[in-house]
Amino acid sequence: MIFALLCGTAGLALSLYVALVGYGVIAPEAGVLPRFCRMDKATCARVLDHPDARLLGIPNSLLGVAYYLALIAVQLLDTSGRFAVLMRGAAWCAVAFGAYLSYSLVARVRVLCQVCLAAHLLNLLIAVGLTWM
Questions:
Q1: Which residue of 3, 15, 63, 65 has the fewest CB atoms within a 10 Å radius of its CB?
Q2: How far apart are CA 44 and CA 39, in angstroms?
């Protein structure tokens, strides 16, 4: 539970950052993240303006925010474990979607978005943690 909470909180922070950049609330170069994770405006725009940055018209960052909030809520509130299977399934769906998005970043967008890749890695860690821990 603690592991999923930590990873979920980190994922939520990353998703919020990308959402705030996407909506122009903060600049990509803002000092919110360590320097090695930051992207310039042009690179960030290439990622966020690409068709793969949305699923059914909804920005992936907002889907991430919803996913991580649900994960955190289930970990904190579902003491009976009733939603454990659902959350595990959602986690593996996030891994599959993240694998496609990682491919898209490298092969189609041709941008190495460290924030995006970190979120995809967190999703894998969450799925593994929920499955085997």
A1: 3
A2: 6
Tokens of 116: 């995006």
Beta bridge partners of 59: 54
Task: Decide: pTM greater than 0.70.
Answer: yes
The pLDDT tens digits of the residues spanning 80-126 come to 889 999 999 999 999 999 999 999 999 999 998 889 999 999 999 99
In terms of Cβ atoms closer than 10 Å to its own Cβ (0-12, 13-18, 19+), residue 3 is middle
DSSP 48-93: HTSGGGEETTEEHHHHHHHHHHHHHHHHHH-TT-TTHHHHHHHHHH
d(CA 19, CA 86): 25
Q: How far apart are alpha carbons 46 and 52 in whole angstroms? A: 11
Task: Look at residues 57, 51, 53 and name the one whose alpha carbon lies nearest to residue 22.
Answer: 53
- Nearest residue to 64 (alpha-carbon basis) of 89, 93, 94, 109: 94
